[in-house]
Fold this protein.
Amino acid sequence: MNSLWAVTLATLKKDIRLEWRSKDALNSMLFFSLLVVVIFAFAFDPLAEESRHIAGGLIWVAFLFAAVVALNQTWARELRNQVLDAYRVSPAPANALFLAKAVGNFIFVSVLEALMTPLFVVFYNLHVLGPAWQLIPIALLGTWALVVNGTFFAAMSLRTRSREIMLPLLLFPISIPAVLGMVAGTTAVLTGDNPAHFYIVLLLTYDVVFTTACLLLFETILHAE
Amino acid sequence: MKRFFPILSILTAILLAYALYQALVVVPTDALQGDVYRIIYYHVPSAWTAFLLFLINFVASIIYLIRRSPKVDIVALVCAEVGVVFCTVVLVTGPIWARPVWGIWWAPGDIRLTSTLVLWLIYVSYLVLRRFSTSAQTQVLAAALAVFGALDVPLVYFSIWFFRTQHPQPVIGGGGSMDPRMLRVLLINWLAFLCFAFLVCWSRYRLEVLHREVDQAHALESLAGAGMAEKASLPLSRSAP
Amino acid sequence: MSDVPNNAWPNNVRPAINVHNVIKQFGRFAALRGVTAEFDAGRFHAILGDNGAGKTTLLRAIAGLAQPTQGRISIFGKAPRDACRDLGYMPHPSLLYDEMSGMENLRYFAGLYGIGGDDACQAAIRAVGLDPELPRPVGQYSQGMRQRMSLARALLHDPKILLLDEPFSNVDVHSAAEMVALLKSMRGAGKTIFVVTHQASLLEGVADEFIWMQAGQIVNRTTNARTAASVRAPDSSREGAP
Amino acid sequence: MNAIKFLFAAYIATWVIHAFYLGTLVRRFSRLREQLRELGKK
């Protein structure tokens, strides 16, 4: 157990250091979601009163696509020089690698969200009518939901042809309940029409179920060359 | 076993014809919807069959992850593929039924149709993974994905169930009990489709076994160039063509 | 864990690796077709063969990276994955992060083996003749240096068995000779060494045994590099680096 | 009475889908048999 946390922490530090030096994932994610915001602003009239109803959907769709960019990057880093093999021949627990990658992605995507949300607020002239604090658990749980399965499926799609396309193909169908929860929850808070509690519970359940499944199956996936 | 196949095929054909006759002619017309309600006799049994096949896929995938037996993996693959076919039938007949009854092709708030669509997407992604995998252990990856897909099903159901309370509901729930005659015909149709699904799965299973035998033969062939083929043979049986 | 002390091995030979009827199939291609062999501890084994003979696959299977379709491999009586502390694996790609310095790389990999502190990392880097203080990222190393840093990574946890895949390819003659000398000294220190290579001549007089693989099987084992390939079929006449 | 068209459409669509799938199965079977025959010749 001790080594699990030690290796997780070491891997996380290493990933953050690598990301800090190259800034591959963060830059491409930022630029990508910026584009999405601008294109959405053209496609939908952001000044209309009903923008409050669609903003939740737009934000999360933008983050979902941006997250896929980050998720593809995480494992690409391990494939260069086949460093993943060095991990696989070591006695370090597979789940430590998974947790480190998932937490790393969580941090990257959260940073992105923190940077992009003000932009959305400005573009769509949003002001929240419901209890705004509920957006925080929705964002945290929703991001983890995307990232935990995304990390897992990105590892899975390492073993496929055209893996960059494979990831969204595997991830999106499974993520539908989570996306629905995030979008509907955010919309509920923004409009203040109905309570968002259910969505928070839904996201929490989703997170617990799939985090458990990922931890149980990741070792199998990692060693299925 | 092979001799039973034609016998079972004929029996299934008779059963399907009988079920069709029951559905179109014998059963009385629905008071509210008119004759168009008879779509139920194809739509609902197909859905039940698809769900059953996906359930078998889930169980087989778990068994595969524990026991790693290739036969169980073939069962999982076959059930997913045939399940997707039946699921497609559900998704096509659903809107055809919805149009005359509700006046719209698709109701996003309808829990059954929408969750079936998500189910279809999940299992299509499963088949795509199996197709595109370059791993020598595709079966393991696929089994893991199948477990994820199955875990997702209740969550999909509940998320849509809650989501629709926000939306105007075009669906008049399946309230009211069913005429026992209708239920009987529904079950006859389900039985007929189950037999049909079994036959299709059987064929698909044999196809997959044959496919793996051909792969094996190619593997033998691939290294036989230096005259080594006699010395070593792969352990898996290779049936005569 | 072995109860034989390290320095006793060369004199007290016993099988380190047991490969029993291993078959590895990739879809329509069989890379290994029933390999059965025993390899003694404390010896230097050179695995030779044409491209696609299954050398790399065999090495990966011993390293626990490739799961045999059938058959089993045991290392000191354990499954490869359980014996990972006894194995040092150095394939052709460097298995290093290009953006980090050699020391940063090794520090991370030492953590994977539960080795704390910098001593082991510095010792491993010095053992391959590099400077631990070098601040350059590995991506800017020369091929020969990268190869040696990669060897340092494989040696980090002081494994009993070293598995090397093409350690001499793409490096100049001088670096290759240095690498051979390094391996020779390690064999002298009691390590079991496996080298997959095209350049058999480099190992003449260094390796204890030459193993010739063809079409996914071991076809010959000799002590002389020149006679190793003598049994192969006449139609496959390729030899040497591509 | 127009609704009856939808009923027939649904029934026909069902069998078209099944026939299509069975068709792909038959095609795959025959391709494999051919490959086996070629392998047998060698």
About this structure: Residues 8-166+177-198 of chain B form one domain. Helices of chain B lie at 4-26, 40-67, 70-102, 111-132, 138-163, 180-222. Chain B touches chain D at residues 20, 33-36, 38-39, 42-43, 46, 82, 85, 88-89, 92-93, 96-97, 99-100, 196, 200, 203-204, 207, 210-211, 213-214, 217-218, 221, 240-241 (CB under 8 Å). Chain B is about 75% helix and 0% strand.
